[in-house]
Each structure stands twice: as C-alpha cells, then as structure tokens.
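Notes from the 1:1 (GR / supervisor)

We went over the backlog. Supervisor wanted to see one worked example end to end before approving the batch request, so GR pasted a single chain during the call. The sequence is below; no edits were made to it. Supervisor asked that the structure be written out right there so they could see what the output format looks like.
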Amino acid sequence: MFRWLNAPANWCGLLAATGVLVLKALGFLGGWALGLAALGYGVGLVAGALWWGWPTTKEDAWEALHFKDEGDAREAMGRALSGVRRLTEHNPGQRIPFALAQRIQKLCVRLEGLLDQWERSKGQLSLQETFHARHIAISYLPQALNTYLSIPQQFATTKLLANGKTAQTTFEGVLAELETKVDQLGDDLASQDAQAFLRHSEFLKQKFGSKDIA
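Structure output shown during the call:
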C-alpha cells in the first residue's frame, strides 16, 4: 500500500484532485466539484503513469538486495555476491547499460577471487581491512546498486546531481572506488605471501647452503 501512496503517479493524481477541491473551497465550483476532483485524480494519475510508470504494490527486484552480515563470512559474502550477479544478469527493465553490467559482474568475480585468495593466504588482513572486505560484498555494492536502480532511468542518465554528475556517472565512480579497494586488499595479501615466501627461501638457503639453493 505504501508503494502506491508514495508513487509519483499517485502524487500527480492527488495534486490534480486537490487543485479542484481548492477551487471549490474558494467558491469557483459548485456541488459537482467532487466528481470533477475524482476525474482530476484519474487524469493526473494517468499523466504521471505515462511519465514515471504505474504505481505498484509489488517489490522492485532490486529491493531484495539487502543482506545481513552474520554467520560465516564466506557464506554471507557469497550470498550477497550471488544476489547482485543474478539481478545484474536479469537486468529488470534493461535499466543497467551493458558496459555497466559487465563492470558489476567483473567486480563480483574479483571479490570472489579475493575470497579464494584470502582462504589460501598465509597473511592476514587488518581489522579495518577485514571490515571493508566483508562490507564491500554484503552492503556497499548491493546498496549502491539498489539506490541507483531506484532512480527513474531518464533522470539517472540525464539530470545532474549536486556533484555536477548524473546518477549513472556517480554510480560508475562508486564502482571505480570499490574496484580500487578490492585490488588493494588483494595486493596486501599477495605482498604478505611474497614476504613469507622470501623468508622461507632465506631460511632454506641458510640451512642448506647457497650452493644447493640458488
């Protein structure tokens, strides 16, 4: 019910009906104004629906992108990434341009790769980095996609926001920041593993002699 009440088309209908009632209160219209108000609501509703789409009580597909950070980290992150990938592949209403969808899919793959690397790694992420890794998959990426898709497509691609960019360009910037952070986390783990390998190599060299271990 709330979705219908909060829909732009419904507000257009209510504004049209309210305008008629205001004219009646001012004495410009007679007793037939109530019927005209109902007609005004209908006209406003149709006009708003043609521009923004018909109101609905059905949950939009992207609104399912809410995941809880609980239990095993691997499972929680995996569930969230699967949800993002399914939605991107389904692409309701073709709201996500092909190039943008490809970037989202690649980021999911990179996050899954980070999970695999994390499990194999001999190194450790700091508490802050661990927090970032979990939340990029469970909340940051899903919520960014959810918020972006809640904006009407024409508005998202044409209207400038307070930052001087469209919503689509802003979302692309968010993806770039997440991509950079995922790469940094992967490099951190790889650097720790490389250092561990170097220490082990030096240990073997000292133990068996430089002639045996190059």
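Supervisor's comment: DSSP finds eight helices and no strands in the chain.
Batch request approved.
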